[in-house]
Amino acid sequence: MSVLVVVECDGGEVKKSSLEVASYGSQVAQMLGTTATAVAVGEATEANLAQLGEQGISKVLYDAEPRLKDFVNGAYTKLIAAAAEKEGAQVIVLANSNIGAAVGSRLSVRLKASLATNVVELPKNDGGSFTVKRGAFSGKAFADVVLTGDRKILAVKKNSIEALHEAGKTAQVEAFSASLSDADFADAPKQVVMQDQAGGVLLPEADRVVSGGRGMKGPENWHLIEDLAKALGAATACSKPVSDVDWRPHHEHVGQTGITVSPNLYIACGISGAIQHLAGVNSSKVIVVINKDPEAPFFKAADYGIVGDVFEVLPKLTQAVKELN
Amino acid sequence: MKFLVCISNVPDTTTKITFTPDNKEFNKAGVQFVINPWDEYALTRAIELKEAQGSGTVTVLNVGEADTEPNIRKALAIGADDAIRVNAAPTDAYFVAQQIAAIAKEGAYDVILMGKESIDYNGFQVHGMVGELLGIPTVAPAMKLDMSGNTATLEREIEGGKEIVEVNTPFVASCQQPMCEPRIPNMRGIMTARTKPLKVVEPVGEGARTAVAEYALPPKKQGVKLIPAESAGDLIKLLRNEAKVI
């Protein structure tokens, strides 16, 4: 019996969301009186994987098969299932990412496990029932879900748990092979195309987000959003009407039918705050709203607000951040 | 080619979410239900592909009780050929996936499409479970889908980019924007939808593997702290010293 954590790596580095997942998994292991082992997917270095000890991981399994660098659903599912069987994992923890959701759902059938996605808190394991809190209704509510299967798979929402950092602790990295065949790579990507991210920060992983709406009046004004995002080390985002008219790409659309984000700081510029937009951002820790309309509904959901013209306010904010740095 | 499109019946996106007094169930009173917006991408793309091929069928599948039939009829009005309703409340993703897998197997569908997730439960689970139950590939979430013979080319969203994936039929894909422009029903579609077949079948398989114990609303915000526009720079100091987020 143990806890297995699925760690996603990119370019040799462990993703920030996976550091959170590792921390979550090691705390679940502690709760159950067992240890947490990780299985790494993607391109990883041994030194980076060993550092998962800081998040409470005792051992990391790593299959160095080069075709696992990019996500392949069939191969990843088989690899993680093999690691779960090897470790006798009772609980499997992964990120609530596109990879986590794609693999987690297949694994749950293969391992006959109960699956909860969008998990936002550590589980409660009392009186024999295993309950987790998860986001529902597009961020407008939460649900306490009882997982009735013997095995449990939890997909943890980004930024919902603080990553542990126990300096100096290292994990043992162990070579692992799931004996993957060519058939397991049948759904391998033919091509991977990366998109330009303003400031180099990925929106789903971002700690801070600067977002623009129709109040920005046109794509030619987006440099104001980008300048503030760059100064803050933030990702850029937009509301649905903005992506619908192609001012910004669809992968920046935040909201009920776009990307749901939960950063520490969300700055909404010229966005009135339709209920569908709020649903995508209302689990952000701090929300700042800048809008010239004092009646904009978004102010009701905000922690800080400025009633003013974004074209005057944004340069002042960017300047203030630069002065602070 | 036979397309199976799975649709959920969800509260309209503008719904204010409330629960029954014991917090055990969503309060449906006065709420309008719609086809899950993500599923509309799946439905429209299936119809477009069928039209482009000049043959084939699009079957709509819903796991739900009789009150979901208006939205099933709407899907038929948009252009689906026939519909199946599994007569059961969709208790959890695994239960729903078993129903879809059973229907897909029996009908030998080539392409099984659904939305990325439903906007109420937000599971993002059913696609993978169906793929695994049937032993066929899953592509999730898909932003683009083209077919050439029995081979599909899909664009799958990854963090920071996309993957181009090719799979042969049968396969499952969960859909999201910008796959297509969802269609709305026209008058002719609404009229013909009334006479299209809607078959009701009873559920199969095991029960659910998860159960909701209680729902809760997020804590209310304390209220906004307003900073005068002329001293906007003070906001940054507050974000550092008070909120401690920069």
UniProtKB/TrEMBL annotation, chain A:
Binds 1 FAD per dimer. Residues 3-192 form the Electron transfer flavoprotein alpha/beta-subunit N-terminal domain. The keyword Electron transport applies. This is Electron transfer flavoprotein alpha subunit apoprotein. The lineage of its organism: Bacteria, Pseudomonadati, Bacteroidota, Cytophagia, Cytophagales. It comes from Hymenobacter chitinivorans DSM 11115. Its cofactor is FAD. Transmembrane segments: none annotated. Keywords: Electron transport, FAD, Flavoprotein, Transport. Pfam families: ETF, ETF_alpha. GO terms for biological process: fatty acid beta-oxidation using acyl-CoA dehydrogenase. InterPro entries: DHS-like_NAD/FAD-binding_dom, ETF_a/b_N, ETF_a/FixB, ETF_asu_C, Rossmann-like_a/b/a_fold. It comes from the Bacteria.
Automatic annotation (TrEMBL), chain B:
GO terms for cellular component: cytosol. GO terms for molecular function: electron transfer activity. Keywords: Electron transport, Transport. The keyword Electron transport applies. Residues 23-210 form the Electron transfer flavoprotein alpha/beta-subunit N-terminal domain. SUPFAM superfamilies: Adenine nucleotide alpha hydrolases-like. Signal peptide: none annotated. InterPro entries: ETF_a/b_N, ETF_b, ETF_beta_N, Rossmann-like_a/b/a_fold. Belongs to the ETF beta-subunit/FixA family. This is Electron transfer flavoprotein subunit beta.
